Amino acid sequence: MKTKSGQKGFTLVEVMVVVALIGILTAIAVPAVLTWLPNMRLKAAARDLYSNMQKTRMNAIRANQPWTIVFEPANGRYLIRAGDGTIRQTVTFADYRSGVGFGHGSITGNNSATTRPGAFPADGVSYDSPDNVVTFNGRGTGTAGYVYLENVNQDATVYAVGTQTSGVIMLRKWTGGGWE
Fold it and tell me: How far apart, in whole angstroms, are the C-alpha atoms of residue 153 and residue 180?
């Protein structure tokens, strides 16, 4: 009986080596992804809030009437309201998963994101009104304050999204020693 020379294919040993390498790479990558993912979700929540503040300001200018964002720390959400009071959008932080919510993490002292030193608000919202509301009027100006977002499972990363009375909207990240 003749044997074919030059048969093509993989040997069992080669397949086992490849499977072992894939297993090792997966074991290394999974912990890194599990650390990275919550921070990316927190960053997404902060950027979405920043974008929603920009949209709310533009809608107030377009409609020439006040639009507001109402922050509800107890419910972990915020509401965007049109000038006529109708709720246009509700954003719930639980939808981001990974423990995104209001708060300032492990930052202490006078390290709030305001230009002057100040203490952090207990509920994570520094708008002066008792209802935690930022209002943009028809000229695009509004109330000043900040909203602090944290990952409740990891105290290291904190984002501050805020407004100045001039209507400027800012997004800052705590780097451990200061705001960037």
Answer: 22
Residue 77 phi, psi dihedral angles, 5° rounding: -155, 170
Residue 168 CA to residue 61 CA, distance in Å, equals 14
pLDDT of residue 104: 86
Taken in order of first residue, the domains within the chain and their CATH numbers are 12-173 (3.55.40.10)
H or E element that contains 136 = strand 133-136
Q: Which two tokens stand for residue 93?
A: 């932080």
The most distant pair of C-alpha atoms in the chain lies apart, rounded to whole Å, by 93
Q: What confidence tens digit (pLDDT) does each residue in 50-107 have?
A: 999 999 999 999 999 999 999 999 999 999 999 999 999 999 999 998 889 998 887 7
Q: Is 92 helix (H, G, I), strand (E, B) or coil?
A: strand
Structure tokens at 102: 């209001």
Q: Rounded to whole angstroms, how far apart are CA atoms 32 and 35?
A: 5
pLDDT band at 177 (very low <50, low <70, confident <90, very high): confident
List, in order, residues 6 or more apart from 134 with CB less than 8 Å away: 53, 56, 68, 69, 71, 127, 142, 143, 145, 163
Which amino acid appears at position 45 of this protein? A
